[in-house]
Amino acid sequence: MAQPGGSRPVTVSDVQQLVRRKDEIEAQIKACYELLESQKGVGMNEPLVDAEGFPRDDIDLYQVRTARHNIICLQNDHKALMKQVEEALHQLHAREKEKHARDEAEALAEAMSQNQSLPQAFAKVNAVTPGSPASISGLQVDDEIVEFGSVNVYNFQSLQNIATVVQHSEGRPLSVTVIRGGKKVHVGLTPKRWAGKGLLG
């Protein structure tokens, strides 16, 4: 397995592998301590000689020495491993942070370019009567009108401009462009007489 800090980026499975190894070492340390406990409770520092300086005969000296030695080695391994786990986690988090920042920057750039590409509206639909030509064409309340036939933000002066276009286009489809929910939408609208007032509703 590549060490953290090697040429290959650290993966989640690398970290999981390190954590499994750490758990194994901890289990081995525990087993060694249990062995010391079984030997009349000698820990890491109790003397292995009696009052007269002779090796104690009530415990298995070889087992105790081996267990103590193993504990020291395993604790060193454990320490080194914990450092590796920490480094690996740092690398993973740093990569996540980088990716998150990149995604945010991309989303922002996309939103900016969309805003720039949206044309300016000159009027807003505040009512659409059900059953009217406007309603049938799919025009919706809060649609912002960008183009209405030949009328756009550059030549629009008043709603009279739209009324004039509507009167001249009775029975003929008009191209209407609106901004709806931040997107440009084209609506085909045919002004005509209906049960209500006007040619649009």
Which value, in Å, is the CA radius of gyration? 40 Å
The biggest beta sheet, please? Answer: 5 strands, antiparallel
Q: By helix and strand content, what is the structural category?
A: alpha+beta
Beta-strand percent range: 5-15%
Helix proportion of residues, in percent? 40-55%
Unreliably modeled segments: none
Mean pLDDT: 86
**Ends: how far apart?**
72 Å
Shape: rod-shaped
Number of domains: 2
Subunit structure: Interacts with PSMC3. Part of a transient complex (modulator) containing PSMD9, PSMC6 and PSMC3 formed during the assembly of the 26S proteasome.
InterPro entries: Nas2_N, PDZ, PDZ_6, PDZ_sf, PSMD9
Domain PDZ: 90-182
Protein name: 26S proteasome non-ATPase regulatory subunit 9
What do these coordinates show?
By secondary structure, this protein is α+β, with helices and mostly antiparallel strands. The protein has two domains: 12-115; 123-189, Pdz3 Domain (Roll), CATH 2.30.42. The chain is built from four helices and five strands; from the N terminus they run ααβαββαββ. Strands 1, 2, 3, 4 and 5 form a five-stranded antiparallel beta sheet that branches. The mean pLDDT is 86.
How would you summarize this macromolecular structure in one to three sentences?
Keywords: Chaperone, Coiled coil. With 201 residues, the chain is α+β, with helices and mostly antiparallel strands.
